[in-house]
Amino acid sequence: MGIAVNGVDIDDSVIAAELPHQAKADNPLRQAVHEAVLRQVLLQEADRLGIAGSDEDERIENLFAQEVVVPEVDEASSLRYYQSQPQRFRSGDLVEARHILFQVTPAAPLELLRQTAELILAELQARPERFEELARQYSNCPSGALGGSLGQLARGQCVPEFDELLFRLQQGELAGRLLETRFGLHIVQAQRRVEGAMVPFAAVQAQIADELSRQSWQRALHQYLHILVGRADIQGVELDGAQSPLVQ
Asked: What molecular functions are annotated in GO for this chain (predicted)?
């Protein structure tokens, strides 16, 4: 059975034309099929509503503009968001940190490295005064020669997962688990914290409003696509309208 939307066949050439645009998808062919089907659903809806445009993309944009209504974000909503995520809107936070890096190499596979790192972490939990000694002995980072010291770090200077863990640690706290990043496995300690301050709400209000508007738009658009897909007669493929790149 071929692929059709409300009795209109989706030609193989349409899917082939879409395929290059989905080259980075986990399953490019599947995503190309879904995109072609969803596009047909949207164009048929534009036909039904008499929505015009210079090309298919413009017709779909005009359909969204008419049918997907998103309320404006008010100041109270922005303020609640600002107050609920204080760490996101801080400036000037610094942490003096040190770590021990266990780098994954062909000679040191991940599981073997993890076993060694777990043993070192357990030793440091029992005898924290050995951090500098063990960093010099085991760390694959140049900081190992400095006892693992990374100096003072501001938010955003490290890869996100390192940053997120480091700024949750209290002064002097040794992370109770290994941290895995693209560089390998880390034992992390925050030595000294310098607290910054909240950025004033007025300075980030527009940024927050834009972010909340995008989130509202995405939710409304996903709901709209689900409604359209749910009432369409789609043959030959199961389609989840919310998974399309059209809604990104």
From this structure: peptidyl-prolyl cis-trans isomerase activity
Q: Is residue 81 part of a domain?
A: no
pLDDT in tens, 134-165: 999 999 999 999 999 999 999 889 999 999 99
C-alpha distances (whole Å) from 227 to each of 31, 192, 242 are 20, 53, 10
Neighbours of 80 (CB within 10 A): 12
Cα 247 to Cα 226: distance, rounded to the nearest angstrom:
12
Beta strands in the chain (DSSP E): 4-5, 8-9, 90-91, 94-102, 149-154, 179-181, 184-194, 197-198, 234-235
In a domain, 158, yes or no: yes
Please report whether residue 129 resides in a domain.
Answer: yes
Same structural domain, 15 and 109: no
Q: What is the pTM (predicted TM-score) of this model?
A: 0.60
Overall number of domains in the chain: 2
Q: Hunting for tokens 């700024």 — which residue is that? A: 167
Residue among 22, 59, 18 nearest 41 (CA): 59
